[in-house]
Amino acid sequence: MKATKEEAHKALTWYQNHRDKDFFKRQSFWEILELISQESTAHGVGHLWNNRKNALGVMWLLVTSALLAFLTYVVYGLVVDFAGREIESQTTVKMPEDRGLQLPSAMLCNRGFFSRGKLRALNITTHLTNYLVGITGSAFLLRGGLLTTEEGLSFLKESHKELEEVLSQRNLTFSELIDAISYSCEELLLVCSVAGRSLPGVECCKSFVAMPSFTGKCYSFFSSPHYTQTIKGEYLGVTLYISIPYQDFPELDGNLLDLSQMVKLGVQLSLTNNLTHPSSSVLAQGLVLLPAVYTTVDTSLSIVKDKGIKTFLDWNEKPCVKGDEVSYDKDRDGFFSRTEVNCDLGVMRLCFNRICNCTSYALDNDDETLAPCSAMETMQCYGVLFRALNMTVPSHAYDNVSNTLINHTQQNIVQSCVHEGVQECRRLCERRSYTYTASHLPIEQSVYKELGVQFSIPNQSGVAVVTAYYPNLRYMEIKLWRKTLPDFLSTLGGYTGIFLGASLVTAIEIFVFFSLLLLLSIRNIKKIITPPIRTTPHSTPHSSPNSPREG
C-alpha cells in the first residue's frame, strides 16, 4: 500500500513536471486555466490554484482578492493623476557655486510721480497736474464722481484740452513732457556700490534704464551673472546713496484725486529679477526710502526651474523661453509678449492701440504717432481688456464707464486681440523671485552731516542709504516637471510588483489567456453551428450483393 502511494506521488510529480505546456495545443478550458495559473508570473495566482481544494486556498483567495482590489484602487489613482498632467515640484535649499549668488535687480520709482519745482517751471496748473497723475499712472486714482457727473466730465475734457495745448506750445510729445517734470537718474542717485565696487552717480546711471510705469518714470538696474555676492557682508550687496528732495511732491487736490490711494509717497526701491517690467511690480512691492535713515534689506532668493513641464504627451504646451533670449533694450515687444510675468501687461499693450487708437504711458508704448489717451478713454479701454482677461473690476464707477465702450466695440476684435497676445506669452525656463525683510536705522547726526558735505547736498534735499544683500549664501531651488510615460510605467510597475509580483510579462500572459479563451469559444461555437459529417462504406459501381468476390 505504501509503495502504491509512493508510486502515485512520483507519477503525479512526473506529470506536473512533464505535462504538455504548449499554449497552442488544443486544450479544454480547465486545462488552459491550469496552465496559465501554473505558469503565471503573478505570485498569488499559482498559490490559489495549487491550494484550491484545501483551507489554504480560502486564505489565498482572500489575500489575493484584497491585494488585487487595493492595487486596482491605486492604479486608478495613478491613471487619473497621469491623465490630469498636473505639474509636480521639488524644493531644495542649496549653496551657491564658487561664483556666489547673483544680486537682484533694483528699481527706483517716485511714488509722488512728479517734481513740484519742475511743474512750476513749466507753468503746469494744479488741475492739469492732477489730471496727469490720473492718466500717467492709473485713471483709478481719479475720484469716481468725475466719471459719472457732468461737472466731473467737463473737468476731464477741459484738462485734456489744456494738456494738448501744452504739448503743442512746447512742441513736446507726452513722454517728453513726463521726462521734463520727473526726476532724472542723476538727480536721484548719488553713489552706487555693486558687489563691493563703488561708482559715482553719473557712472552708475549708465547701468540704469529709464522705464515708464504706473507711478510715472522709473529707473531699473538690470542685474547679470557678473554681479554676484561671494561672501557674507552688507556692503558686498547692492548699496545706493539716494538724494531725497524735501517737500517737492506735486500739489494734490482731494476733489480731483482719491487721496486714500496715494498715501504712499516718496522715492521707492523695489527688488526684482531682470525680466520684470516696473508696471508689473512697482505697485505690488517696494520700500519708500526716508532721508537720514539707513535701510538694510535682508534678501532671500528663490529660483524656479522648468525641468520638463512640456513632454511629448503635452503637445499643446508651449516651450519655455531662456532668460538670455529676452532683452528689454534689444526686443521690447518680446520682453512683454514672451515672458509670463509680463503677459497681462503685454496683452494690454498690444490691444490698447487697436481698440482705442491712443497710447497709455504706463504700458510703455513708444508709438508717438498716436495721441495719449484721455482719462475717459483710458478707463474705457482698461474696462474692455479687464473683462476680456477675466480680471476683477476695481470700482463701481468703472463699471458704468466701461460698458459704454463695450457696447460700441466689436467684441470679436477684442477677443481676437487678447487671444493673439495670450498665445504669444511664454513661461521662463528659469525665473528668479525675491523676498526680503527691511530694517531702518537713523543715521548718526555727525555722519549724516559729513554725507551732506561729501555729496554737496543742498538744504532742500536729504540723503537716504539702502543696502540689499544676502544675509546667508543659500537659496531655494524649485524644480517643476510633469510625469513622463517611463515615470508612470515605473511607478505602476513598483505597485504591481509589491502587491502581486506582477510585471509587463503578466499583462502579456493575461492577453494570451483571453486570446486562448476566445479561440476556444470560437471553436466550440463552430462545433455547434457546423453538424458532423457522416461517412458510408465505399462501394463500386455495377456491384451487387450477389456478385462474386475476387480472391
Give an account of the 3D structure.
Strands 1, 4, 5, 9, 12, 13, 14 and 15 form an eight-stranded mixed beta sheet that branches. A hairpin with a 2-residue loop joins β6 and β7. This protein is α+β, with helices and mostly antiparallel strands. It is elongated. α2 packs across α3, α3 packs antiparallel against α4 and α13 runs antiparallel to α16. Helices cover 43% and strands 18% of the residues. It is built from 19 helices and 15 strands. The protein has a domain of 100 residues.
Question: Total number of helical segments?
Answer: 19
Q: What is the averaged pLDDT score?
A: 80
Beta-strand percent range: 15-25%
Query: How would you characterize the largest beta sheet?
Result: 8 strands, mixed
> What ranges have pLDDT less than 50 throughout 5 or more consecutive residues?
396-402, 547-551
Quick structural gist:
The protein is an alpha+beta fold. The protein has 19 helices and 15 strands. α4 packs antiparallel against α18, α13 crosses α14 and α14 crosses α15.
Task: Identify the notable features of this structure and list them briefly.
551 residues; alpha+beta; 8-stranded mixed β-sheet; 5-stranded antiparallel β-sheet
Q: Layout of helices and strands, plus pairs?
A:
Elements: H1 2-18, H2 29-39, H3 43-50, H4 55-84, E1 88-94, E2 101-102, E3 105-110, H5 116-121, H6 126-136, H7 150-170, H8 174-181, H9 185-188, E4 189-194, E5 197-200, H10 201-204, E6 208-213, E7 216-221, E8 228-229, E9 238-245, E10 267-272, H11 278-281, E11 287-288, E12 293-306, H12 332-337, H13 343-356, H14 375-388, H15 396-408, H16 411-424, E13 430-442, H17 445-454, E14 461-469, E15 475-481, H18 485-500, H19 504-529
Parallel strand pairs: 12-14, 12-15
Antiparallel strand pairs: 1-15, 2-8, 3-7, 3-10, 4-5, 4-9, 6-7, 9-14, 10-11, 12-13
Helix pairs in contact: 2-3, 2-19, 3-4, 4-18, 6-7, 13-14, 13-16, 14-15
